[in-house]
Amino acid sequence: MKKLITVVVPTFNEELNVENVWQRVTNIMNKQLPQYDYEILYVDNCSLDRTQEIISALAEKDSHVKAIFNARNFGYVKNVYYAITQAKGDCAFLLHADLQNPPEMLVEFVQYWEEGYKVIAGVKKSSKENKLLFAAKGMYYHLMKKISDSEMIEQLTDFGLYDRKFLDVLKNLDDTLPYFKGIVSELGFDLKIVEFDQNDREKGKSFTNFFKSYDYAMLGITTYTKLIRAASWAGLLLGILCVVIAVITFVLKLLNWASFPTGVAAICIGVFFIGAIQLFFLGLLGEYVICINTRLLRRPLVIEEKRIHY
After folding, report:
1. Helix, strand or coil for residue 163?
2. d(CA 307, CA 310)
3. What's the longest Cα–Cα distance across the chain?
4. Are 5 and 110 in contact (CB under 8 A)?
5. Residue segments in the chain with a per-residue pLDDT below the cut of 50
6. CB 122 within 8 A of CB 160
7. How much is the pLDDT for 64?
8. How far apart are CA 288 and CA 37, in angstroms?
9. Which of 151, 69, 162, 178 is nearest to 119 (CA)?
10. In terms of Cα–Cα distance, which of 201, 282, 214, 274 is closest to 241?
11. Do 156 and 85 meet the contact criterion of CB atoms below 8 Å apart?
């Protein structure tokens, strides 16, 4: 009996790309991996364009195409994680519909899978995306690696191939706000890192903006770091600094009682600086509270509206 590979494709407003994904994956499976059975699972996050219509048409003419349509948009993080947990195959290949990550690497990933690796993770060696954005992501991943409780993998993507045993781990985690890259870094066993050059989006425009990127970055920080402890250290250091300044000021005032200035500017600067530090860590504490509150609500990752061939 042939092993089954599930190609998981999360989508949102990808009407220009979903058919191209189908053509390329089908070509790879039929010509380069004919010894495997396969299914292409589109999990659509309530697209506003013709994405669902095109997926439905593909499913009509190809029984390998399956689909799950969400009842509303539940966000990138939840949709991607839910999509990978719905794979029925012996392994799942996670591929985004924008085709920035080359589907042809499936052949190489399958080779490593057959060698015994359970998680084959794609890591960006270079990217054709905005250079400033790529550099900013690189600094973020480097920071996460330094301050995280777990060993984070720099420039890790969710593009990769995951064995059935690891997929079962994902399904049993029961995390309502999953940080997938952190989970792979922390729990990925028999892990193989594969570097690749990331392409630019083939068609259409990206719906990722600064605020969505910020949400995703803060999810990683609040889930896998104890950065809030820096508030204690900052408070201690500022306290020591204030005591030293107070002693120096007192001594200088005693030595120059009549001529020593009151230092209104210094006082204002000190007050504003300490206030800024307090607000920063108050905001950081709020991020942790939001993360905790979302998980405590125990809401489902997504709510489905419809399934096709599944």
Report:
1. strand
2. 6
3. 96
4. yes
5. none
6. yes
7. 95
8. 44
9. 162
10. 274
11. no
Q: Is the pTM of this model over 0.90?
A: no
Q: 83-97 burial by CB neighbour count: b if 16+ within 10 A, else e? A: bbbbbebbbbbbbbb
Residue listed under structure tokens 């500022």: 238
* Angle, helix 131-147 to helix 210-224, in steps of 10 degrees: 10
Q: Which residues contact 126 (CB under 8 A, 6 or more apart)?
A: 197, 198
Strands (E), 172-235: 191-198
Report the candidate in 184, 199, 192 with the shortest Cα–Cα distance to residue 103.
199
Q: Read off the tokens for 122.
A: 């794609």
The answer to whether the CB of 109 falls within 8 A of the CB of 94 is: no
Cα 141 from Cα 230, distance rounded (Å): 19
**Token pair listed for 153:** 């993998």
- What confidence tens digit (pLDDT) does each residue in 283-294 have? 777 777 777 777
Beta bridge partners of 118: none
Q: Which two tokens stand for residue 222?
A: 């609040």
CA distance 310 to 298: 26
pLDDT tens figures, 92-120: 999 999 888 999 999 999 999 999 999 99
Handedness of CA 115, 116, 117, 118 (dihedral sign): positive
Residue with tokens 């299914």: 39
Both tokens of 309, joined, read: 């061939």
